[in-house]
Amino acid sequence: MSQLTEQPAEGPVPTSADVARLAGVSRATVSYVLNNNTAVRISDPTRRRVREAATELGYVPHAAARSLRAGHSRMVLLPTAHLPSTPLHHRFLHGLESGLRRLDYTVVQYGSIGLDPDDAARAWAELRPVAVIAPGSVPLAPQGIAVLRRSGAKAVITLGPQPVPGAHALITDQREVGASAVRHLLERGRHRIGVVMPAEAGPALFAGPRLAGARRAAAAGRARVEELPLHYTEESAAALAARWSTLGLDAVFAYDDAYAMLLMRALQDAGIQVPEDTAVVGADDSMLGRLLRPRLSSVRMELATVQPLADLVDRLVRHPGTEPERHDLLRARTVHRESS
Amino acid sequence: MSQLTEQPAEGPVPTSADVARLAGVSRATVSYVLNNNTAVRISDPTRRRVREAATELGYVPHAAARSLRAGHSRMVLLPTAHLPSTPLHHRFLHGLESGLRRLDYTVVQYGSIGLDPDDAARAWAELRPVAVIAPGSVPLAPQGIAVLRRSGAKAVITLGPQPVPGAHALITDQREVGASAVRHLLERGRHRIGVVMPAEAGPALFAGPRLAGARRAAAAGRARVEELPLHYTEESAAALAARWSTLGLDAVFAYDDAYAMLLMRALQDAGIQVPEDTAVVGADDSMLGRLLRPRLSSVRMELATVQPLADLVDRLVRHPGTEPERHDLLRARTVHRESS
DNA sequence: TTGAAAGCGTTACCAA
DNA sequence: TTGGTAACGCTTTCAA
User: Fold this and answer.
1) Residues contacting residue B148 through CB under 8 Å, at least 6 positions apart
2) Using N-to-C axis directions, what is the helix angle for B234-242 and B257-269, rounded to 10°?
3) Which residues of chain B have a CB within 8 Å of the CB of A76?
4) Among candidates B120, B125, B251, B126, which has minimal Cα distance to B196?
5) Is B111 part of the contact surface with chain A (CB cutoff 8 Å)?
6) pLDDT, tens digit, 9 for 90 and up, residues A121-156
7) For chain A, what are the domain ranges?
8) Which terminus of chain B has fewer Cβ atoms in its 10 Å neighbourhood, N or C?
9) Do A265 and B291 touch (CB under 8 A)?
């Protein structure tokens, strides 16, 4: 048929038994050598023979067999929801991942969008991860946590604005973002503050807490806060801008820089002066904001450094059964530019 | 110590033997029932007893044991480089993933940034994936392909602008992006065309091919193309804008919308009129471009629909040893707005 | 210093 | 219709 011969022959996958045969030793010896087992002394010539045999055959150990025998894996599972995310988020994930790799964990992302929460937890559990770090964008109920723990996960950790009962929590408290923006606006003398609420599903997760933080800061400063639902479309922005004067607002916190740009453009097109008539504050402190005119004031966020976090995960894995811990990751401060 | 008792007891993980014991049947029967094995008839009462026992124990099958026994897994490994990517890219990945899930594959992403190419391939091979789909941002050499094939991967597929010898290739031919932009500019009567070359490592992968496509289209239209290295900073953009008049260009293709915005802003700040003095074209057709003034002309890209792609992967897995195939995924056309 | 053998959780073959 | 058993690849204990 289409069984054309290729360079890497369609042969059977080499096992440690093949290596042993070629090196003229037992499988045990192969295991000792390749795992640098110090508890047992192997002669240097033997070591060399084993190594050479392994290389010659292109032997790669079988992770499944290994963890089956060991009774546990070193896989850390990171369910993902594939939301386009910010550079900050990317740096964080990458840092966490390489931190864990340094501790000899295998980090694996498992796309879980559109799965029923229970199915998802079961699917993760089948892989018998030693730890699961679930972002808030992925549904994880106490039910799912129980399944994971029963299947041997030593640590179940959530990552997001909300903790989940029974799991450890790395908290990115988005309320601080909204609060920082509103405090900034209060300092600039604004008291009637709109807060853009993205209608899209992805941002919705963060939008609620940001609004709550904005409300809290506003209450402390005798300011008024008004929710402003907005789709990420020009039409929606234009519609909002058209009724802007009826809202009686002198400032707006626009969820993030992208929504801020969308709204600011619509406001300007509708003849509303920024910042004179209305101050605008975004969030993410992206390059985008610096390129707008007026330059966009924006909430800058910083996440905790990651090596300590990887160490934390490691500690939780080694001491399962500790009370759920909470760790606050997010710091926010507003960078003042021209739009406010 | 810190061994506080928790709700999900620290007990042993339930196995199919436990389910069998509780249901009063053999392990084989459990396997038949839970896998809906049709080759074997099991009485309904037995089925029910087994199912109930499994639920009661919270039994989840052990994927490693299963694939060890089966001699193969259904894992598709997707090495990732964690570049912040476009919504288009996200939609594509998510679609491919759910398409493969529908075909009963387990899709897993493996962050591989900063790994030596050979180490990376070995690490992937340890998981014994049935297929590997490696984006161009992840280094994969013929050496690595051989390791993967030897370890049982039925299909090794690259995804990006360049094919790799020995692997199947899903090609996103970025040359077409540059060519489309330049053809558009030629139609608008421009003949001295700058092409922005991002100095950052991430975009560099796409920048070369886009430039090559631009050159090809320019040659066909007797136009001149000039490379313009640019860092993604305001300073770099300002520096480029400052020497703009000495370049004698009447148009620029700016790699993507973000770089286009950066450059367009710098040009405007330097008093250069867009599009009168210089036409600007971006790429990605993002919301960003529609919000700029003048509105940004941009190359819109479309990727092939994904279910056929998932089917393709499935076919390659079922017919290993077929000649490396190439499939072209990318379509590009330029959307004309005000900046050109 | 090395080897033989058991066992991890599954599934598939063959008997009963 | 159901059960016993062997085997997948690996590590580790015990014996030589």
Assistant:
1) B121, B124, B125, B129, B132, B156
2) 50
3) none
4) B251
5) yes
6) 999 999 999 999 999 989 999 999 999 999 999 999
7) 16-61, 73-171+304-331, 175-301
8) N
9) yes
Residue type, A199: A
The third-level CATH classification (topology) of the domain covering A16-61 is 434 Repressor (Amino-terminal Domain) (1.10.260)
Query: Helix H segments across chain A?
Result: 16-23, 27-34, 44-57, 63-70, 87-102, 117-126, 142-150, 175-187, 201-220, 234-242, 244-247, 257-269, 287-291, 306-318
pLDDT category of residue B82 using cuts at 50, 70 and 90: confident
- The residue to which tokens 């299947």 are assigned: A151
pLDDT in tens, A276-335: 999 999 999 999 999 999 999 999 999 999 999 999 999 999 999 899 999 999 999 999
Q: Do domains B16-61 and B73-171+304-331 have the same CATH topology?
A: no
Decide if A56 contacts A19 (C-beta within 8 A). Answer: no
Looking at chain B, how many residues does it have?
Answer: 340
Which superfamily does A73-171+304-331 belong to? Answer: Response regulator (3.40.50.2300)
DSSP annotation of B191 reads -
Question: Which of B77, B150, B256 should we substitute to test contact with A (largest number of A Cβ atoms within 10 Å)?
Answer: B150
CA B33-B35-B40 angle, to 5 degrees, is 55
